[in-house]
Amino acid sequence: MRILRAADYRSMPWKNGGGVTTEIAVSPAGAGLDDFDWRISMARVEAGGPFSVFAGIDRTLSILEGEGMRLTIAGRAPVELTRASDPLFFPADAATDASLPAGPITDLNVMTRRGRARHGVRRLVLAKPFDFVSEAATTLLFCHQGSIAIGESSPVALDAHDTLWLDGASETLRLVPQPHAILFVIAIQND
Fold it and tell me: Peptide bond before 129: cis, by omega within 30 degrees of 0?
């Protein structure tokens, strides 16, 4: 179990040069945009336009801040994504265009390389203690809002934008919101 603090995340330019992303975690450690197995990041999106294309990558996008984004993926009907929406899974190598009908947003982006890893993302709103068990090869709990005490004897605090990284199946972890929290649970399996 590791805690990744928001203050320690690394910022870098987008692949297409259109903005800046904050890398939360990447595997293998130190991997770049062309050789990661999986990657989790946040990005501030100030204007609409085409997404960077990542060959052989699947991605899931969630809105953290702002009113939302409209995505057109591979010419299909547009999808509206808001803070209340479920995380949206789609291929990162499909032509994707975004518009921001109500202004800038910040998103959470999870990407895995097909043939090496796959992922699932779910959003949890916690208002009372919750017992969590990880069953994936790697699980990351990203605290979007609020804070959480993890464990009962000598609890560890997870504050807004901090991440708990778990490798392998875990024993039950007691998550206690302080007084409430929104978490994204990112489960990664190796192929």
Answer: no
Whole-number pLDDT of residue 18 = 62
pLDDT at site 12: 81
Structure tokens at 34: 């062309």
Q: Per-residue confidence at 16, pLDDT binned at 50, 70, 90?
A: low
CATH top-level class of 118-190: mainly beta
Fold of 8-115: Jelly Rolls (2.60.120)
Domain residue ranges in the chain: 8-115, 118-190
Question: Comparing C-alpha atoms, which of 189, 160, 157 is closest to residue 176?
Answer: 157
Closest CA to 131 of 152, 145, 115, 111: 152
Q: Do domains 8-115 and 118-190 have the same CATH topology?
A: yes
Could you tell me which of 30, 126, 106 has the C-alpha nearest to residue 64? Answer: 106
